[in-house]
Amino acid sequence: MRVVVTGGAGFVGRAVVERLASRGDHVVALVRDPDRAAHLTERGDGVTLVRSALADPGSLRDSMRGADAVIHVAGMYRVGIAKEERPAMWDANVGATERVLDAAIAASVGRIVHVSTVNVFGDTRGAVADETYRRDPAAGFTSWYDETKFRAHEVVEARIDAGAPVVIVLPSQVYGPHDHSIASDQLHRAFHGTLGYMALTDVGLGWVHVHDLADGMVAALDRGRTGELYCLAGPNHTLGAALAIAAGLGGTALPRVTIPTALARLAAPLNDALGGLPGMPANLAEAIRSGDGVTYYATAGKARRELGFAPRSLEQGIVDTWRRH
């Protein structure tokens, strides 16, 4: 197939491009800077890099003409951003989704896979959500990221209702090689014994290895039913439990210092007024709100049954990611 992948140079996008290219598909990777994405072409001539910030609808349509499928991976994931950064995140997560889907529809692409997130379920309050779970938007959002991804999800569902050939996949917390997220960094540091302190350890996450996620996304491309949602979620653990697993596998000890959430709350007004103290997010109050006892739990049961999705355990994923380094 000829498959257009947005965000091909990103953490998840890179894994998807590699999976598609390795099986012989021709991949058109839309990237901001082709010079910084040259590694995607190392597998041969099956990958074409196209410079795109996903801002121009006409250019997007041109890139998608003749494509069999589009996988929309691109987006912005950060929690605790300053208010002045909110428009950029809205455009990256909502505006870009509108432009990419509408361009794919205009180009008569027969298959579209949209990468959402289990975050659209919001705080599941300990429950393990499936694809039928619905949050109450009137109850508010845990972060600006949470709200923008939910609104992007609404954009996609509206296109599906209008007849667009879209399949939605919802990953949980992704980790693995080439990741620079805070979550992966903490696992890495715990494994190697360099984690300085812990905080918000009771946030509940589903840990999915990026290579398993890429396999699930390709399976959704091949076998997912149009209009359906598939949770590509890994095993559920609190952050504290995940760090303990990483430290145990690495033969290291967890740090003795855990910052009490109550202390972080006291520091938040000063931190946020100053735009972020050293090592802290610009909006600490948002970071606390999105992590203090919040659970983002989901089950991959449907994806297992229909797509053959088989996420590895967190223990195996940690070993596969860091023991060889």
Structure description:
The chain is of the alpha/beta class. It has a domain at 2-174 and 207-233 and 298-311: Rossmann fold (3-Layer(aba) Sandwich). Helices cover 41% and strands 16% of the residues. It has 11 helices and 13 strands. It has helices spanning 11-22, 57-64, 86-106, 144-161, 182-192, 210-223, 239-250, 261-273, 284-291, 301-307, 314-323, and strands at residues 2-6, 26-31, 47-51, 69-72, 112-115, 166-171, 173-175, 198-199, 204-209, 229-232, 236-238, 258-259, 295-296. The strands form 3 sheets. Strands 3-2-1-4-5-6-10 form a 7-stranded parallel β-sheet, with helices on both faces. Strands 7, 9, 11 and 13 form a 4-stranded mixed β-sheet that branches. It has a two-stranded parallel ribbon with strand order 8-12. Helix 1 crosses helix 6 (210-223) and helix 2 (57-64) packs across helix 3. The longest helix has 21 residues, at 86-106.
* The CATH architecture of the domain at 2-174 and 207-233 and 298-311: 3-Layer(aba) Sandwich
Give the C-level CATH assignment of the domain at 2-174 and 207-233 and 298-311: Alpha Beta
Alpha-carbon Rg, integer: 19 Å
State mean pLDDT (0 to 100 scale). Answer: 95
Briefly characterize the structure.
The protein has 325 residues and is of the alpha/beta class. The protein has helices spanning 11-22, 57-64, 86-106, 144-161, 182-192, 210-223, 239-250, 261-273, 284-291, 301-307, 314-323; strands at 2-6, 26-31, 47-51, 69-72, 112-115, 166-171, 173-175, 198-199, 204-209, 229-232, 236-238, 258-259, 295-296.
